[in-house]
Design a protein that fits this description.
α1 packs antiparallel against α3 and α2 runs antiparallel to α3. A four-stranded mixed sheet has the order 2-1-4-3. It has two domains: 138 residues, Helix Hairpins (Orthogonal Bundle), CATH 1.10.287.1490; 60 residues, no CATH class. β1 and β2 form a beta hairpin. By secondary structure, the protein is mainly alpha-helical.
Length: 235
């Protein structure tokens, strides 16, 4: 294999590893971001529960106030019974008292139901709060992991970049310019092996005469389909 081709293959390997580490680093925050979104959902759920809780408490206060007023009204109506002068007034007052009692019983039942709803909502808020605290711990741990992993990747990338710079010095400027152009256009795959007349990068056939030239390895050749630098894979 020609020396410049061997150098390019080595350079490509380093560049691909740098690219891989860069992509992995970009993906590091994915889980943290997912936890952050989940945290926002939990916060929204808690806010909704608290709003509902506030509405129910307001309703309970209203019913309690109504019950207090109607209980006072009932007391006064019961006191009037002793001063009723005829049966018609007695029946009217009795009916009024029974309606107040019935309404108050409904209010008392509603208050009990509201108390149950309040307790249930408070329990849900408490449970959601525990979930939020757990998420906070997970996010803190994930943040530390991202920082540590990021620093390790940066260290590896720095070492590889230094190695790459040294290898790149061995490549002629015109060939290096072509390498950069192809690396940008072909996702970093610049040099490709040809196996039994087929380019391993684009899977297209190489003309027979070009394949024979590849086997002789007398000069650099380029795939007529994808323009990558090619070499014959010899077994």
């Amino acid at each position: 294999m020609r020396p410049e081709l061997s150098t390019l293959i080595r350079l490509q390997g380093i560049d691909l590893e740098i690219r891989k580490l860069g992509l992995e680093k970009d993906e590091l925050p994915d889980r943290f971001n997912a936890l952050k979104e989940l945290m926002a959902e939990k916060d929204a759920e808690i806010a909704e529960l608290k709003e509902k809780l506030a509405d129910i408490r307001t309703r309970k206060t209203e019913v309690e106030d109504e019950l207090e007023l109607e209980s006072e009204r009932l007391k006064k109506s019961q006191q009037k019974m002793s001063s009723v002068k005829n049966s018609r007034e007695y029946q009217a007052l009795s009916k009024e008292i029974e309606e107040i009692k019935k309404s108050n019983k409904a209010r008392e039942d509603e208050i009990l139901k509201l108390d149950e709803e309040i307790d249930e909502l408070k329990a849900q808020v408490k449970e959601k709060g525990k979930e939020v605290e757990k998420l906070k711990k997970e996010m803190a741990a994930e943040k530390k992991r991202i920082s540590k992993a990021g620093k390790e990747m940066d260290k590896k990338i720095a070492a590889l970049t230094a190695e790459r710079d040294e290898v790149a010095k061995e490549v002629k400027p015109d060939l290096m310019a072509r390498y950069r152009f192809l690396a940008e256009k072909r996702a970093g795959i610049v040099v490709a092996a040809v196996d039994e007349g087929v380019c391993s990068a684009c899977n297209m056939n190489i003309p027979p005469q070009m394949y024979n030239d590849l086997l002789r390895d007398e000069k650099l050749l380029f795939c007529p389909s994808c323009q990558r630098i090619i070499y014959a894979l010899k077994v």
